[in-house]
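My hope is that you will study the protein record below before we discuss the fold together.
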Amino acid sequence: MNRPPLPPGIEPAELAWHDGVPESMRFGDVYFSRDNGLEETRHVFLQHNQLPERFSRIPEGGSFVIAENGFGTGLNFLAAWQAWKTFGPEHTATLHFVSVERFPLTREDLTRALALWPELKALANELLLHYPPLVRGVHRLVLDGGRVRLTLFFGDINDAWRTLEFHADAWFLDGFAPARNPDMWLENTISQVRAHSKPGTTLATFTSVGRIRRALMEAGFRMEKTSGYGRKREMLKGVLEGEKPAQPERPGTLAIIGAGIAGCTLARNLAERGYPVTLIDTSGPGTGASGNAQGALYVKLGVEFNDQTELALTSLTFAQRFYSTWRDQFWHPTGLLQLAHSPQEEDRQARFLQRNEYPRDILWPVNREQASAISGVPTQSGGLWFPGSGWLEPGNLCRELADHPLISTEYDVKVKRLLPCNGKWHISVDEGTSIATDRVVICSGHLSPGLIPIKGRFRLKAIRGQVTHLPAPAVINPKTVICGNRYLNPVLGDIAVTGATFDLRDNNPLPTTESHDENIHELSSMLPSVFAREVGKPSGENLDGRVAFRCTTHDYQPVAGPVFDGDNADLDDLYLLTGLGSKGLTYAPLLAEYLADQLTGQPACLPANLARRLETRRLYQTDVAAS
């Protein structure tokens, strides 16, 4: 066996192929029946969890959650997805599938394995298109236009069940045979199955081993043996006993204040799950900090792979999948080059590469010659190449996201304050009128603190950023986004956007010549050869640009979740999504997904360790005078 990769990499499965069927070399067992793996899945998991009948009964805006303890080739998932399309409700509802895999298949092996099932080809192709890079942690895949959400954990099964938040309606207890993979069938693993279940949760498994049946019975499941599939005479099915919980009431009305990238992605996310929302903004979608003509999809991954780095990486890969819907429309996946633009950054990147191992579909190092060839601009250094990144048209994207039948809009409205009254939130706006709603999410960027209706202070601050619009003839047009102490995007129309300044103590909302000159100077120091010789370096006094105010937190990490009221509790039905700083385009899709999970009571797309980083309570200060 090869050495385990450095973080965040994970060992892929090692396969042997016998008569076209994949077998795990590590466990010496097949991934599915040699007789007919798809029919075995239908018999064991779909039929004995009564999925066709149960799918048809899901209410509008509701969800059904399947959990599985071994993703393998994804055959069980695809069979469940196919059944959802066949038997699921015609109205909007969501199938959640939560699965874990310690040794995931490579994309190449997965492609070969799923080619065995021609009738699943369309679904398999969509899964393969969104299949995540082989890095540890949680990956949320949004499929079938949002009707199917796959939460895929790459890592140890006990870590998965300990850190993921969900309650299953049905379990697929799969994985390799207990004799060949005993760690997956330990008592503590089965106790976690119980912890993630509720009265009425069903389960099915291909095995009929006595100790497994007894352990499940001790956990509270009523178990019985039944006929297996093919050469397996018997299998187990069960149900968790107890009084079934009442169907949750459908949540009431919801308003989102702020139509930047955070508010628009959240509104669209909820609408696609069947939840109507009202989107409120002082002007319209994508006109504030999300109103720049161009924006790069960019993160700076830490030298140490800690929670902060994992959140940034998870956000980046999720955003790349999310924006693919608008490829060559508002999303331009040109790739992104992160230059080692200074001795300090060169040293940081060297340490980063020494301590980490990332798959090449996320990043790889390039030297100066390679960087110049990739970008089309002569560079002074090498750097890190992110092939899946690129740039967006944020304003146009926000307008597209806000255009949905379940999103009603209130634009050109200035919110003055929020007041709780008679079980509802009243949003006081211009001319003395108010909007009443059951729940509110504040997504107002640097204006958010002024809307939070509690005493004390939230450690949020505004940082001015000015971008500069370079005339297209003035620069060598890069083929990709180039980042360093400034960024430069490929030409859009007759301009290329560069920036942005980072002005901590400047609240001037208008572009200044000084800030343009600063952007030109920093870009020139990063890319001395970028300006066209026949035109020369432009002067700031002759340039256009734009000012926006980033909202950031004291620890430069975003915030998403219920608002903390300062008395060791959360305010009822008031939420916050802000503090995304200069990485809003990268963080917004994942944080909108996470907050939508909370608002709908559906499985969380983030593990507990990353969810803790987003809590609002860390921002709260009782001393208003504190800095």
The chain has three domains: 15-240, 254-288+395-459+555-621, 336-387+461-553. The two ends are 54 Å apart (CA to CA). The CA atoms of residues 98 and 616 lie 27 Å apart. The chain has a mean pLDDT of 93.
